[in-house]
Structure formats: structure tokens, C-alpha cells
Amino acid sequence: MRKTNPTRKKVLTDFRRAEILAAAMVVFGKKGFDATRMDDVAQQARIAKGTLYLYFRSKRDIYTTAVQHASAQLQTLTNERTGQGHTLEEKLKGFIAARVEFWGENRGLHRMLLSIGREATHHKQTLIMQRASVDTLLRIFTHAVESGEITQHPFEPAAWATLDLVRGANERRFLGVTKNSPEAEVNILVAFVLKTLQQ
Questions:
Q1: pTM of this prediction?
Q2: Residues 84 and 7 in one domain
Q3: Structural domain contains residue 61
Q4: Hey, what long-range contacts does 41-45 have (CB within 8 A, 24 or more apart)?
Q5: How confident is the model over 132-157, as pLDDT tens digits?
Q6: Is 180 left (phi over 0), alpha (psi -120 to 50) or beta?
Q7: DSSP calls for 164-183
Q8: Which comes out higher in pLDDT, residue 180 or 12?
């Protein structure tokens, strides 16, 4: 089957949608979801409000698309980082470092996921994103069992706890509660999770 190149129109459409999503993240981060209007997003994106509606039906549509886009980006970065590792420690470090780096660069979306993402209407989407991360960790843990690095345990609770640790560390860093560098934070988290898994 022949691979077709995207048309110029599709490239421009994708580029414009990405610009709008980036603008929306800025506005959502400053004003919160409820206070944000489509006018605000259009103004931030430097386009007419009518043009905005050509790409997105509502601000809820923008939010949903932003989360899906972020989830795909994070998964790609995670796959790259964990793929470079050979041991459990290296893969775990890649997994955690990807999240520290990614959310450090996307703090507005991180804040939204912690607030809007917990609302009933968005909860399912947030859980889908988290589930993908848990599944990645389960694969890492299972590979470590197969290679003899750790023994078999019920790994699901450990995977969810690892996500909670990373989220908490990011929140404290964003709030200025901790002065650890991102690298130091990653090393602390990796050491803690490894110790837990190796018991």
C-alpha cells in the first residue's frame, strides 16, 4: 500500500489547530476553564471568533482535544525514554523523567487536569490517560520479572502509587515547596519505587 503525503491544506489545518490548542492552554491556565470564553481563546490565538469555530465546536471540545493531544505526546516521549533503558532502573528513570519534563513544560494543562480533569464530565478522559501510564509501568515491571530483576507481585497498586508520587512531586515543584532540581527529584522517586519493588 502506497503511503500518501498529507496535503498542504491538511498540514495548515493541523498547524492552526495546534496553535489554537496552545493558545487555549495559556488562557485556561490563567483564567481557569469556567471563566474562559471562546472569545478569549480566539484573541489569544489572534484569530476571529468565527474562525475558531471552524476548528472547534466549544471550549469543552478544545479541552478534550488538548488532553488527547497531550496524552499522545506524553506516550511518545515515554516510549522514547523507556526504550533507551535496558534495566528496570533505567526504564523506570525514563518513565518518570518523561513526566517530570513533559508536565514541567505544560504546567497550564497539568493544573487543568488536576482541577477540571477531576470533574465528573471529564473524569473518564482523565482515567484513560492515567490508564495508559499504568499499563506502561505494568509492562516495565513484567519485563523486570522476566529478566529476573524482581519477583512477581501484584503490580497494579505499585503502578498507581508511582503515578501519584510523580504527580505530587510535580505539584510541589510547581508551587515552589521543594527546591530539588528535576534531575534530583527523578533520582529520589526512582530510588523509592525501586526499593518498594525489590522488597
A1: 0.82
A2: no
A3: no
A4: 45/19, 45/20
A5: 999 999 999 999 999 999 999 899 99
A6: beta
A7: HHHHHHHHHHHTTS----HH
A8: 180
